[in-house]
Write a structure and sequence with these properties.
Blueprint (H helix, E strand, L loop, with lengths): L2 H8 L5 H9 L1 E5 L3 H5 L20 H10 L4 E7 L28 H11 L3 E6 L12 H16 L6 E4 L17 H11 L4 E4 L5 E2 L14 E3 L16 H9 L11 H4 L5 E3 L2 E6 L17 H10 L6 E5 L10 H19 L6 E5 L4 E18 L7 E8 L2 E6 L6 E20 L5 E8 L7
Parallel strand pairs: 1-2, 1-10, 2-3, 3-4, 4-5, 6-9, 9-10
Antiparallel strand pairs: 7-8, 11-12, 12-15, 12-16, 13-14, 13-15
Helix pairs in contact: 4-5, 4-11, 6-7
């Protein structure tokens, strides 16, 4: 490949907001609202406000468990497709102000934002563009209505780290006209009100991985061809009418098995930095359903997703749904604590006194440390210089113990335990010279995915 193409690929780097979210890596989703009380995933917008009455709601309990899981932030479904607003909005009567919760004076958005501050978590908002309750939906006026809601959320609740934009829309099935969302206006409004906000989903900063099951690609690239990112975030299992099938066809590139290899990029001339986010629920559904308590994912399953996302150059967004009392289920809290214990133990076993020497123009990194049993290494590239490593291997005393492809902003390479005092990282394929800024050796003793 000619140097001109490599120069082009390596000129693509993250913006300031993307660097912030790459550093977070792992954060929480909270799906909560009238669906919690109707046992549905998609509400129809006709639900009575009176059904929302979580008698024991405790957002401190949510955030304490999320913090103990090792996560860095929380995104709340402030309004889902049913249009019910979890804050004291001036835009609609279909909101918490007409519910019995705290005699209509409650504000779940405020409670979660304050609990996040208390537990050192960042706070983010999900505001569904699709609204099955708003009478103006399907008209140009709806875009003004949506911007008013967005403005309330981004001006009244302190710093907001993320705006999560869902692309789901079944308006045609409802007999409604399909709303043309003014995403450009949404993005510009968000940045004007919250300059550090990261926008995910149908948005320019973070892309959907392409499924909701936690499956990831072996090689996840941040440098991808430019495409219409306002038409991507729709789950395959939500394709319920012809319009949505067309939608998926237009955005099929987000589901391709390869989005960033040299061969794939050779077909395009314009590129963007676009890290992938793995959104997955701790249970089968996104909202709490009493009959799904047996679908709670095992610790091993969740940590496998973690290593394949937060440990493989992607972001992990884990959903934990509160129940009708307004509490996280005890079993879910226990699982979150188990995840946090796993991650904390790995952190505690990072080997101190590692000496590093870079040779061969940066293509080899030699590490020496006091002899001990080790079984993983945590790596990261300096992505302000783009994503460059395409293949690498790890050796000890001349013996290869690991081989992988990408590194990116976060890679955890796990191998069979070996007693040694040295490691050599060999970068065998790279887009120009590599820039590695983290090499953390981890002693044996941390938990392993079975």
């Amino acid at each position: 490949m000619d140097n001109e193409r490599l120069d082009l690929y390596t000129s693509i780097v993250p913006n300031r907001r993307q660097l912030i979210i790459q550093d977070m890596k792992y954060y929480a989703f909270i799906h909560y609202g009238v669906n919690t009380f109707t046992n549905r995933e998609w509400g129809n917008g006709k639900e009575s406000e009176s059904i929302f009455n979580p008698v024991k709601q405790n957002t401190d309990q949510w955030c304490e468990a999320i913090k103990e899981a090792g996560m860095k932030g929380v995104i709340l479904t402030c309004k889902h497709h049913d249009g019910f607003c979890l804050w004291q909005t001036e835009t609609t009567e279909h909101s918490i102000k007409n519910s019995p919760y705290k005699n209509g004076k409650g504000d779940v958005v405020r409670e979660v934002s304050e609990s996040c501050k208390k537990y050192g978590l960042k706070f983010g908002v999900y505001l569904s563009p699709w609204d099955r309750n708003a009478k103006c939906y399907g008209t140009p006026e709806y875009n003004d209505f949506y911007i008013r809601q967005l403005t309330e959320l981004l001006t009244n609740y302190g710093d907001i780290f993320m705006l999560w934009l869902d692309g789901a829309c079944g308006a045609k099935a409802d007999g409604q006209p399909v709303q043309k969302y003014d995403f450009e206006r949404i993005w510009s409004t968000a940045l004007e009100l919250q300059p550090d906000i990261v926008m995910s989903g149908c948005a320019p900063d973070v892309r959907w991985i392409g499924n909701e099951s936690g499956k990831t690609r072996e090689s996840e690239w941040n440098v991808v061809p430019k495409f219409e990112y306002d038409q991507q975030n729709i789950a395959a299992n939500c394709q319920t009418d012809n319009d949505m099938k067309k939608f998926q066809k237009r955005c099929q590139d987000v589901m391709l098995p390869d989005m960033g290899s040299r061969d794939f990029l050779s077909n395009y001339d314009e590129f963007m930095w676009y890290p992938a986010e793995v959104d997955v629920s701790i249970r089968l559904g996104w909202f709490y359903h009493p009959m799904q308590r047996l679908t709670l994912k095992s610790l091993n399953h969740l940590m496998k997703i973690y290593y394949n996302s937060a440990g493989n150059n992607s972001l992990m967004l884990l959903n934990i749904p509160p129940d009708r009392k307004g509490l996280l289920a005890n079993a879910d809290v226990r699982r979150l604590k188990e995840m946090g214990k796993w991650i904390k133990k790995e952190d505690e076993l990072v080997v101190k006194d590692v000496k590093s020497e870079t040779v061969n123009n940066g293509f080899e990194i030699k590490l020496t440390f006091p002899a001990q049993s080790i079984d993983r290494i945590r790596l990261a590239e300096d992505t302000t210089k783009s994503q460059r490593v395409e293949r690498f291997s790890i050796h000890s005393s001349g013996k290869k113990i690991f081989e992988g492809t990408i590194i990116g902003f976060s890679k955890i390479a796990v191998f069979e335990p070996i007693v040694t005092d040295n490691l050599t990282i060999k970068i065998t394929e790279c887009r120009k010279e590599p820039y590695i800024n983290k090499t953390e050796v981890v002693a044996t003793g941390a938990y392993r995915v079975k």
